[in-house]
Amino acid sequence: MAEELTLEIVTPEKLAFKGIVQEVTIPGTEGEFGVLKGHASLLSAVDHGELSIQQDQKKVRFAVHTGYAGVTGSRVTVLVEIAERADLIDLERAKRAKERAEEKMAKLSKDDVAFEKARLALVRAITRMNVATKG
After folding, report:
1. N or C end of the chain, less CB within 10 A?
2. What top-level class would CATH report for the domain 90-134?
């Protein structure tokens, strides 16, 4: 069994987190799942949601948006489009983004390609708001 669990959260722009953790909980597309040291290897799609880390008796939260998570041995690698630590999320900006997305969606047909873009913007804004208020 592995002695430590190393977590890396990577986005196209940056390494959002790298460190030793006791536990990580990931929002998978088939449901949330937790990883402890010694976890079996797996590959999962990641959905929009809260990724939480237990590290040194503290819980650290991230808002994450679609990607993949891989678990191998004592390492968890999360590759996502966006990863924002809860305490760094601008709540007012997220609220404004939510309002803009709702306004756009109200003006568009569900068949319009722009509707889906606005819907995803709404999901991202709500995820940020939920994670920021917990964090």
Report:
1. N
2. mainly alpha
Question: Tokens 């006791």 belong to which residue?
Answer: 22
- Distance CA(130)–CA(133), nearest Å, equals 5
Local confidence pLDDT in tens for the 135 residues of the chain: 447 999 999 999 999 999 999 999 999 999 999 999 999 999 999 999 999 999 988 999 999 999 999 999 899 999 999 999 999 999 999 999 999 999 999 999 999 999 999 999 999 999 999 999 985
d(CA 3, CA 22): 10
**CATH homologous superfamily for the domain 5-87:** F0F1 ATP synthase delta/epsilon subunit, N-terminal (2.60.15.10)
